[in-house]
Design a protein that fits this description.
The chain is α+β, with helices and mostly antiparallel strands. It is 31% helix and 26% strand. The termini are far apart.
């Protein structure tokens, strides 16, 4: 009887652990993941040469973001039942090969496409070694999914650099803006 009970508990635990879909590969095939990540990068990264924040989504600039795809990694991804898609991307920091930054955010997908709409960066980690970015970002990602925000974690400066008392994300222009001078 004890063996059967232990087996049932173990089976339940394995099923519940595997039911969490927190990888882009749980939702998309490889070329779709690359396309989605390129679309996310277009929001996160600097505008392509000759592009502005208003024009960077135009087709003539897509190759710039595609060329930079290998510098970004979609560490975690989750589609919630309410239509929000949550992400944790690891990105480069300037020209530093030593440090990386984690970006956590959310968006909805334009119907029948992989184009994010209602895009928002929720938080950025400080510049850290990649291993630390992954560890801290995983924690933040789980909290973001659970609470739909990171309000309780924002004071944790070793985990979140922005937003802070000086920078907030502006959803209209899709960039971090100064709200109070340093």
């Amino acid at each position: 009887m004890k063996k059967i009970l232990f087996s049932l508990i173990s089976l339940f635990f394995l099923i519940s652990c595997n039911s969490e879909k927190h990888q882009a590969s749980d939702y998309f095939i490889d070329n779709q993941k690359d396309s989605l990540l390129t679309n996310i990068i277009t929001y996160l990264y600097i505008p392509a040469p000759a592009a502005t924040n208003e024009t960077k989504f135009q087709p003539q600039f897509r190759s710039f973001y595609t060329k930079n795809l290998s510098s970004f990694y979609l560490q975690n991804y989750y589609q919630s039942p309410d239509g929000w898609n949550y992400f944790f991307v690891i990105r480069p920091v300037g020209g530093s090969p030593k440090f990386r930054r984690g970006v956590l955010g959310k968006f909805k997908l334009e119907p029948n496409s992989l184009m994010p709409i209602e895009f928002e960066e929720v938080a950025n980690t400080p510049h850290l070694a990649e291993k630390i970015v992954k560890e801290r970002g995983q924690y933040l990602f789980r909290e973001l999914i659970k609470n739909r925000n990171l309000d309780k974690q924002i004071p944790m400066k070793q985990y979140i650099e922005w937003p802070d008392e000086h920078l907030q994300y502006d959803k209209k222009v899709h960039e971090w803006v100064t709200i109070k001078p340093y």
